[in-house]
Backbone:
């Protein structure tokens, strides 16, 4: 192990140790996200409610709907036979969520389910628009001092006690169909403000129970003083019978199947993982640097054969033996054509011209001119040999370059 690697490892160990020392006395931050998930033990999860719903709704069958939408579940329980046209199940659909977590198709199916003599209990801050329009209701929210918020039941025979809910944002019903709607609960503050937060709305042969304080069923409130009593009072309005609880996580989340999920669920392990990856990347970057001197560029040896050919050519030219030089250039040209393009050079005719044109892609006119000059020279044409040499050389250069 060389010195630089030891330095990198030492720096990484020092950084990790510094982080561990710094965070040693730090308290784990509280996750205040309103997940409303039955798997979460954080303040606004439903872990405790999931464990206590059995004793809370005694002698009632509770079925959890987790892997399908309400539409998919309820539609599968509907007997479409022309003589029956009835649901195979009877009871109350239950959903507790921060915001609207039911799609439009499921809302339509939910109305159909309730119309057949069933019920639906929805506790959420925002209800589906189509549901509010059909039931002629509307919600609004307001801000208060957290310490002044109160919730209580409308029927004093159920409970006359008021519970303090320390929340700054309060949602409530500001518009209801007073002719058909029954008010079951209120919320307000010490300034005598009073808003409706729990109602019962009839729909054909069944009822909708709508509640705007889903936080009442979370771990935070069920473990705080006597707040569990308020949750019991609200749930006491659910009719006796089977409960079909929609427990799907908010925003279509699901439990990760990744092998790394435990590491990423723990902040300390997650940061240790990230730092390890960063350290590996730094190590790779620094060790990919070249560790030897630059290799000098060696120029290739000159082609002595080419130099020799040029020398012989110059010699023939200086001696004035132009005819011999023309013959050798023609021989060199035809030899190159045979070796590189595998064309027979016995007869320099139209067939040869076409083959050479197709294989080289050179201008056919230039090839015709060269063949004409070669044939003319071979036919013992006695013109100006120096001019012929220049013309043949230029014609060959056009084909070979």
Residues:
């Amino acid at each position: 192990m060389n010195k630089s690697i030891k330095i990198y490892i030492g720096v990484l160990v020092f950084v990790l140790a510094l982080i561990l020392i710094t965070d040693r006395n730090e308290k784990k931050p509280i996750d205040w996200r309103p997940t409303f998930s039955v798997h979460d033990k954080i303040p606004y999860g439903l872990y405790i409610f999931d464990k206590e719903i059995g004793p809370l709704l005694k002698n009632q069958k509770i079925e959890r709907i987790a892997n399908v939408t309400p539409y998919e579940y309820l539609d599968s329980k509907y007997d479409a036979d022309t003589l029956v046209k009835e649901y195979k199940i009877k009871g109350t659909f239950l959903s507790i969520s921060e915001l609207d977590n039911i799609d439009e198709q499921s809302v339509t199916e939910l109305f159909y389910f309730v119309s057949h003599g069933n019920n639906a209990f929805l506790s959420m801050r925002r209800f589906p628009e189509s549901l509010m329009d059909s039931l002629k209701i509307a919600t609004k929210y307001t801000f208060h001092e957290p310490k002044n918020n109160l919730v209580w039941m409308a029927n004093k025979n159920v409970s006359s006690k008021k519970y303090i809910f320390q929340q700054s944002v309060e949602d409530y019903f500001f518009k209801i169909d007073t002719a058909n709607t029954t008010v079951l609960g209120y919320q307000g503050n010490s300034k005598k403000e009073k808003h409706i937060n729990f109602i019962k709305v009839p729909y054909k042969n069944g009822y909708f129970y709508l509640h705007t304080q889903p936080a009442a069923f979370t771990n935070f409130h069920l473990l705080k003083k006597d707040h569990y009593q308020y949750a019991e009072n609200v749930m006491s309005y659910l009719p006796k019978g089977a409960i079909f609880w929609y427990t799907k996580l908010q925003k279509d989340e699901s439990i990760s199947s990744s092998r790394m999920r435990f590491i990423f669920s723990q902040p300390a392990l997650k940061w240790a993982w990230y730092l390890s990856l960063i350290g590996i990347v730094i190590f790779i970057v620094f060790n990919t640097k070249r560790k030897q001197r630059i290799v000098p560029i060696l120029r290739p040896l000159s082609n002595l054969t080419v130099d020799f050919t040029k020398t012989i050519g110059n010699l023939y030219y200086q001696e004035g033996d132009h005819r011999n030089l023309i013959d050798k250039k023609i021989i060199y040209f035809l030899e190159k054509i045979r070796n590189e393009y595998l064309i027979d050079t016995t007869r320099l005719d139209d067939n040869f011209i076409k083959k050479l044109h197709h294989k080289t892609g050179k201008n056919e006119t230039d090839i015709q001119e060269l063949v004409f000059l070669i044939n003319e020279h071979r036919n013992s044409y006695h013109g100006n040999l120096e001019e012929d040499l220049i013309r043949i050389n230029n014609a060959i250069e056009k084909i070979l370059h």
